[in-house]
Amino acid sequence: MLKDKQVVLGVTGGIAAYKAVELLRLLTKAGANVHVIMTRAAQEFVTPLTFQTLSANPVHTELFNLIAEREIGHIALADRADLGVIAPATANVIGKIAAGIADDMLTTTIMATKAPVVIAPAMNVNMYTNPIYRDNEDKLRRHGYLFVPPVRGALACGWEGDGKLAAPEAVFEAAVAALSRHDYNGQTIMVTAGPTREELDPVRFISNHSSGKMGYALARAAQYRGARVILVSGPVNLTPPSGVELVAVESAGEMHAAVMGRAGECTAIIKAAAVADYRPAERSGAKIKKKGAELSLQLVKTPDILAELGRLAKAPFLVGFAAETGKLSEFATRKLHEKNVDMIVANDVSQSDAGFNVDTNRVRLFFRDGREVDCALMTKDDLANVILDHVASALRLLQNS
Ligand code: C5P
Questions:
Q1: How far apart are CA 204 and CA 287, in angstroms?
Q2: Ligand 1 pocket, 271 CB below 6 A?
Q3: What is the distance in A from the centroid of ligand 1 to the CA of 190?
Q4: How far is the CA of 19 from the centre of ligand 1 (A)?
């Protein structure tokens, strides 16, 4: 999403200015070409050289305003920008933008750009709650400026409360969201992710190698595209994208309850989770002791959540995943019809670059009307968007039919 995009990153004078360095790193890593503008006060906290080195672009400062005006021109930068981000944004700079004051390189560029602007405020809690500040933020929001609210914490001024700059990852996510298509506005999408754990006793469980990466990529992409996202996740080592509603579950039974309980709210449900098909018939209350040479476990079937969703009278659009180790087409087509789902994302997990625990995936999509779409090897983030493209066009078809 950020690849080859021109991003203007405004850094203003707060103790959190050093966190903009991390944000810059995230933006450049995602392929953005970042042009940093620092206010005079920001330079008291971090040197322009740090940003210049990491962005590989000259840093624009108030001091060089006149030279920059001649050589580059704030209008040129404003025109070229695909996105503006101000992090951290002080009460002062927000007040100036709200009042239409453009008296330095940053405020001039922000006033002159037609690109979306993301503002991440950071300030003393009393400034943040001051009605004058509140009016300024409300006014900018009304005019389409996007805000990443500060978080609660110990502030540099000694106070405790709202005012701490949001995490660089959260500002980064807001930046990607600002550049995304918003075709999912007003839709609620549920994504299930990760493995389930079926307990044998207090210390052991049956599970699988699912990392949750595909499901989390889908949740993130749907959120960027404007959806309200419910992420029902088994135990994984991933940070949920900020803003998604996380429902953490352990077993297939818990996932079943969570999904069925919220299915009615959703336009589409994407079941990327690797749900255990069987669980131990009994969970021992005490640790199972080592005894003979063999131990037999009795397993019973878990509820097939996807199939149950397929039987609902008013089912949302359903996307299932099929991880197979051969005969992809045969198994995927059978699953599509047996479970009564709208789309199956099938991958051959015996290939090392597709499926569990890797960042890439190679899948084939199967649809109810018999269509099959082969997708090239791509990152799970890219694949998430491809899947969402198909869901979006199918939803429009359904709405029009
Ligand atoms: O039949 P199979 O388990 O291969 O189907 C996989 C699909 O069904 C996945 O989308 C998975 O999330 C879903 N599933 C489920 N409940 C189960 C087992 C699988 O919803 N108990």
A1: 8
A2: yes
A3: 15
A4: 42
Q: What does the pLDDT read at residue 397?
A: 52
Q: What's the CA gap between 308 and 291, in Å, rounded?
A: 39
Cα distance from N-terminal residue to C-terminal residue, the chain = 32
Identical topology for domains 6-178 and 188-400: yes
| Closest CA relative to residue 25, chosen from 141, 175, 153 | 175
- Judge if the beta carbon of residue 275 lies within 6 A of ligand 1: yes
Q: Which of 27, 166, 5, 143 is nearest to 88 (CA)?
A: 166
Task: Report the CATH architecture of 188-400.
Answer: 3-Layer(aba) Sandwich (3.40)
Least trusted range by pLDDT, from 222-236, 241-255, 358-372: 358-372
| CA 383 / ligand 1 centre spacing (Å) | 19
Topology adopted by domain 6-178:
Rossmann fold (3.40.50)
Model pLDDT for residues 22-34, shown as the tens digit of each residue: 999 999 999 999 9
18 closest CA partner among 106, 88, 93: 88
- Is 317 near ligand 1, meaning CB less than 6 Å away? no
Q: Which residue has the tokens 């015996």?
A: 350
Q: How far apart are CA 344 and CA 211, in angstroms?
A: 19
Residues 6 or more apart whose Cβ sits within 8 Å of residue 280: 198, 199, 200, 206, 297, 298, 299, 300
346 lines ligand 1 (CB under 6 A): no
Determine whether the shortest distance from the Cβ of 305 to ligand 1 is under 6 A: yes
**Residue 71 to residues 64, 67, 251, Cα–Cα distance (Å):** 10, 6, 62
- Which residue's CA lies nearest to atom 5 of ligand 1? 322
pLDDT tens-place string over residues 107-147? 999 999 999 999 999 999 999 999 999 999 999 999 999 99
Q: Which pLDDT score is estimated for 220?
A: 95
- For the chain, what's the residue count? 401
Report how far ligand 1's centroid is from the alpha carbon of 392 (Å).
22
Asked if 104 and 91 touch (Cβ cutoff 8 Å), the reply is no
Q: Where are the domains of the chain?
A: 6-178, 188-400
266 is catalytic: no
Rounded Cα distance, 295 and 279, in Å:
16
